[in-house]
Amino acid sequence: MKQIIDISEHNGKIDFLKVREAGIDTCIIRIGWIGNKNNHTIDKYFEEYYTKARYYGFKIGFYVYSYCLSPATILQGAEWTINKLIGKRADLPVFIDLEDKTIKSRGKQELTQHATVFCEKLKKKGYDVGVYASLDWFKNYLDINKLLNYKIWLAEWTSRENHSFKYKVDLWQYTSKGKVNGIIGNVDMNKCLCNCVENVD
């Protein structure tokens, strides 16, 4: 089963050649985070990660972390995301990461709207799109039945051979404590459970 890492500035400098030699050739890179005062912020390693991963032949996807408190700010964040992706190729989907405790109070209906507003905006630009969240969020803060037309990226950290979610899962983040040569410290590890990128399997 295809192993995929997801990475952000928290992973620091990465030796992509060593990662590739370790058998990993697919990654999802954080573009940055989107907020409420047009203060969207790019991940400080975004450009470096993309350039080096592309140089060493990685398949690449992207994600954006959301602090947004309204559909309007989500839309602004989606437009910012599109701008940051100009000139870059996405082999995997572009995901909206919904997990921050500061937005929980918006409720299931509105948070689901946040996901759809983001995904539909990028979809209109030709991107494959998806939603990242934990098992708890997919069960309690998002209406999964309204998101199944998008790729579902589930975070459920477990040593079991499979996740416990009863709906379709395209990518499964099964640990935050992966070890890969070329990356100092822990790295998130994912299993691809679908054909979410051409020739990914």
How is this structure best described in words?
This protein has 201 residues and is an alpha/beta fold. 26% of the residues lie in helices and 26% in strands. The chain has five helices and nine strands, in the order E-H-E-E-H-E-H-E-H-E-H-E-E-E. It has an eight-stranded mixed β-barrel with strand order 1-2-4-5-6-7-8-9. A hairpin with an 8-residue loop joins strand 8 (171-178) and strand 9. The chain starts with a strand and ends in a 9-residue tail after the last strand. The model has no long low-confidence stretch (mean pLDDT 95).
SS content category: alpha/beta
User: What is the H/E string?
Assistant: EHEEHEHEHEHEEE
What distance separates the N and C termini? 7 Å
Radius of gyration: 16 Å
Give a brief outline of the structure.
By secondary structure, the protein is α/β, with parallel strands linked by helices. Strands 1-2-4-5-6-7-8-9 form an eight-stranded mixed barrel. The termini are close together.
Q: How would you summarize the topology of this molecule?
A:
Elements: E1 3-7, H1 16-21, E2 26-34, E3 41-42, H2 46-55, E4 59-66, H3 71-84, E5 94-97, H4 107-123, E6 129-134, H5 135-140, E7 151-155, E8 171-178, E9 187-192
Parallel strand pairs: 1-2, 2-4, 4-5, 5-6, 6-7, 7-8
Antiparallel strand pairs: 1-9, 2-3, 8-9
